[in-house]
Write a structure and sequence with these properties.
Order of helices and strands: HHHHH
Structural class: mainly alpha
Number of strands: 0
Radius of gyration: 17 Å
Keywords: Membrane, Transmembrane, Transmembrane helix
Number of helices: 5
Shape: elongated
Length: about 140
């Protein structure tokens, strides 16, 4: 098994992180839009939940892949946070701008606030795992 495969497993999607993000951000978007009625809040939360499951799972893997594939650690962590955060924020705003979300900008703010923190923590964790695997591989 190569170091990259051991560190990333599935290269394209993280089901556990997608699911966790879907429930977390879906609940926040429901609360943000609740003043417009539970039906509209449920539509917005459902869109956010489904979107976060799919895109969040993909972006988490993107974060992980960038964090271990760029040689310089600081640059790897910076890119592993910036690229997925910008993509996720733009896609989230676009999704909420479609008909059905009463507060698209406010519904996007949780993603813009929590995504960098989550991506940084995940990138740091995966980079540490990768570095320790690389060190162990060199000593064997």
């Amino acid at each position: 098994m190569s170091i990259n495969t051991a560190a990333t497993g599935n290269s394209f999607f993280d089901i556990k992180m997608g699911t966790a993000g879907a429930f977390f951000l879906g609940a926040i978007v429901f609360a943000v839009n609740y003043a417009h009625g539970w039906q509209l809040a449920l539509v917005a939360a459902s869109k956010q939940g489904l979107y976060t499951f799919i895109i969040g799972g993909v972006m988490t893997k993107m974060t992980e892949n960038i964090a271990i594939r760029i040689g310089q650690r600081r640059k790897a962590l910076l890119m592993a946070v910036l690229i997925p955060t910008l993509l996720t924020s733009l896609l989230t705003f676009g999704m909420h701008s479609l008909k059905g979300t009463p507060e698209p900008f406010i519904s996007t703010l949780p993603t813009f606030v929590f995504a960098p923190v989550g991506f940084y923590g995940w990138a740091l964790r995966k980079r540490k795992q990768f570095d320790s695997l690389k060190t162990a591989d060199l000593t064997n």
